Each structure stands twice: as C-alpha cells, then as structure tokens.
Predict the 3D structure of the following.
Amino acid sequence: MNAMTATLAKGYSTLPPTALEKAARLLRWPITLLAMLASLYLVFMIHASGQTLWALGLLALFSAGFYVYVSNAGFAYRYLFPGIAGMLVFIAFPLLYTAQIGFTNYSSAHLLSQERVREYLLDQHEAVEDLVQPFTLHADGANKNAYRLVLSTEGTEQGQAQRRWVSPPLALGPTRDEMRVEMLPLDAPLQAALPLRELIRHREALMKLRLVLPAATGLSELRYLGLREFGPIKRHWTELPDGSLKRETDGQLFKPNGQTGYYENAAGQPLQPGYKVTVGWQNYTRMVMDAEFRGPFLNIFSWTVVFSLLTVVFSTAIGMLLAVLLNWDDLKYRTTYRTLLFLPYAVPGFISILVFKGLFNQNFGEINAILDALVGIKPAWFADPLLAKIMLVIVNVWLGYPYIMILCAGLLKAIPADLYEASAIAGAGPLTNFFKITAPLVIKPLAPLLVSAFAFNFNNFVLIALLTDGRPDYLSTKIPAGQTDILVSYTYRIAFKDSGSDFGLAAAISTLIFFLVAAMSLLNLRLMRKAQNS
C-alpha cells in the first residue's frame, strides 16, 4: 500500500503498456524515417524538374514539420503548425505563384522556356527521300530476348549491287537515351523477319536507334522514319556559338530577344513559338498606359464596384424591410411568409440563375410575355448593355436578400422593447421608429457583414458566367471584353476563353483583385472591432 502511494505521488500510472502502445513505440522511428525519405525524394524530384526555389520552400516546410512533431522542443507548436502550413500552401503559395506570373509574358504564344523552344527548333528536320532505306527485324537465334536489324542499301555508284547490313544483337528494351549502332555486312542467314505487329510493339525502342554505316556507303547517320524505313535527315536549323539560330534554307539568322520572348531576325520578324520571359511591370502599366486596354478595363472596374454596391444596398433595404414586417406580432401566417421568402436562399444559386435566364429570354421568357401583354414592349435584356446590367442586379438582389433578412431578423430580437414603448408614448409613428431606432441599431452590427457581402459580390463569377457570360461585348478592343463583365469574369476570359490567352495579364489583374479584397477584409475587421468596443 505504501509502495502504491509512493508511485502515485510520482505522477504516473502503474498500469503496464498495452500491446498497441508497445507497437507504436517500436514503429515510431521507422515510420518517421520512411516519411523523411519520402519527403526528401519529393523535394529531389521537384529540384530535378528545374523548380529549385519551390524545392527549397518545400524542404523548409518539411523540416519545420519534422522539427515540431519529432522533437520535444517543438511540442508547443504542434496544434498551431497545421494552420500555418495550410495558410502557406493554400493561400501564400497560390498568391506568390500568381504574382510571379504577372511579371512575365506567359501566354498561349509563350508557354515554353527558351531552352525548350531552342530544342524544339533544332529538332525540326525532314527526311532525305532519295536515301531512305528499308529494314527488317529478326529474332536472334542465340538469344531469344535479342533482335537483329537488317538494312538494305542501294549502292552509291551506278551499277553497284545492293548490299545488306546487319546490327549486333539488340535488347530493344525501354530506354530514354539514344543508342548508336555500328552496322556490319550481313554474311550469314537469319531467322524470318518479324511481322508488322511485332514491329509496332518495338516502335519506341527503334526510334532511339542511330544506325551508322561505313563511310564507303556514302550515307550518314540513319534514323527511324517509319515502320519499314530508316534514312538520313536534313535539319532545318543550326545553332551558332553566340546562341543564334541559322535557317538552312536561306541562311537567315534569328537571335533571342529577351524583351519580346521570340527568336527574331534582323528585320524583327518573330519565330514561332515564343518563350516565357520576365517583363517587369509591363502588365500593370498596360492597365493604365495603354489607351485601348485602359478604356474597357476602367469601365469594367467601375461596373464591378457599382454592381457590388447596388446589390448590397438593395439587398439590405429589401431584407431589412421584410425582417421588420415579419417581426410584426399582429401579422398572420408569419411562418408561411418567412418560409416562402427564405426559398431563394435555400435553392442552389446556379439553378435560380438558369431559371432567370429563361424567364428573361426576349422571345419566349415569361417576363417579356407579361410586359408585352401589359404595356406592349419586349425588352432585349441580353442585347442592350443597360438592360443586361439591370437584369444582373435584379437577379443578384433576389439571390442575396434572404441572407440579409435572416441577419436582420436575429438583430431585431436584440433591440429592447422599452425603446418602442417610449417612442409610442412620445407619439412617434412606424416610420420614425424605423429610421430613428430600428435602422441605426441594426446597421451598426450589420456593417461588417455588409462589407463581406460587398467583397463576395466583387468576385461573383458564377452569376456573370451563367447569366450573361459578360455579353454584350465591347467593339474594337485589343482584348475581348464584355460590358457586363466584372473583374473576375474579365480575368477568366483573358486567361482561358478567348484566343491568345494572356496568362501574365490575367495574373496581374488577379493580384490586383486580391489586394482589393484584402483591403475590404481589413476594413471588415476594423468595423467589427469598433462594433464590439462600442
């Protein structure tokens, strides 16, 4: 008994460890070692692909993770590390990567690096048709896993007989490297030639062979040209010591231009494809300095602000008004009304948007059918820019007012009833109560949420994409832009939809949107802090 008391006084249990706990202790370090090796392998593969900076960043993240979860010194950070790592991976990394693209000319015409473009151009060639030679493939009798390639060549001099050349035994296994094969005169019969099906099976290995014949044949190195042919090739380009490329057909020189991302000749004629280069602040200055781009961009930016502001104002006005009406004690069937008014928020947004797209159809929509029956007009909602913007605001207010109504309904319950009783004694009416008591007390705590709603509508891509797709378009612009586009849909169009996708410019606009939304978030936090302190 005294021994048990002494043991408990030391602060630990006297129960023996279970089998599971023993296994966990034994496997802890082997599993940790395997995880470290897997992490190092992943970092090495990223570094081998040419992304050294991202490999170093991932190595730092893995090192911090192992330090926190393996060492006792990092115990205090074990619950904080997942959140920090998630923020770095899902917020910081996409932001930095997008911002980095914004300083380049990355586009559909500049997808590759300069090294890849140079390799692509130098690899362009054509076969010398007059010197193409047929070949056959035979199984090697001494080794069942080896093959011998037989090449038939015509003599270089008139009247010279045809000669046949044979390769040493070839494994023809999967390989990434080219293999030079010295061809020898055929002096012994071989097994029957393999059928076409077998040639197709070995096609990738045959493409790596470079057949070398004796100089007396007059043939240079032969390459695989098809399922039945090898032959010499003639390259279109030659690289010079200064890095320029010489076109063999006319001898023109094309030098790399680090500003445009093209190989160009003396006259400035570019050579396709282009390559990615850093252009600095060019994409950002283009938004301000280029008149043909600045016009649509500033219009779209202004419409984005107006669209978001009008949506918040009308949604707040309608939602607050309905919340006040539903808070009236003498109103019958309040639950039914509340349920019906909540339906737009319960139905998925994309379904409601597609329904409205049909309702606003100029020829077959119910809205135009009603307007035609009442006043004899059928507005072109999707063709007229002003009507299209009005339609967007109407649909977005329909989708957004239930959210404000629910918030206001909860805030109304927190207003003391004594204020309304004192107002009634003073002889004030409903309008006075609303503007002097209800609205001020509701708007104050509602303000941060309205800022969040403004930021959400600032990036409301789904509504624009499904309802108008940004149409109608601006005319005579360098970059296709729609009059109902907002910044996020305009960025999507630049990056992915229209021909000549400009990812660098789209990344610059995305970075600008991020800072705008970040500023709204900071304003939101400040308003919330003031609301809590007051």
Notes: The chain has 18 helices and 15 strands. Residues 291-326 form the longest helix (36 residues). The CA atoms of residues 268 and 360 lie 51 Å apart.
